Amino acid sequence: VVNLNIRGSAPSTVSEVRRVVPAGTSIDVVGFVSNGQTVNGNAHWYRTVEGDFFWAGGTSEPVPAL
What we know:
The structure is a single chain. By secondary structure, this protein is mostly beta strands. The protein has strands at 4-7, 17-21, 29-33, 45-48, 53-55. A three-stranded antiparallel beta sheet has the order 3-4-5, with no helix packed on it. Strands 1-2 form a two-stranded antiparallel sheet. The chain is globular. It starts with a strand and ends in an 11-residue tail after the last strand.
């Protein structure tokens, strides 16, 4: 688990980094997408309550539970 870049507008590494969250921090999510930019073979991204995104591969749950 690493520090997470919280990105605005789209589930992609080219989206603006709005903030960086330290490893081990809990983040409230409202959903996920499985068709975001693929990073290291993983296209899953979580969506925050603010509507921003972070890559699931940087978390302890790299594949969201359905």
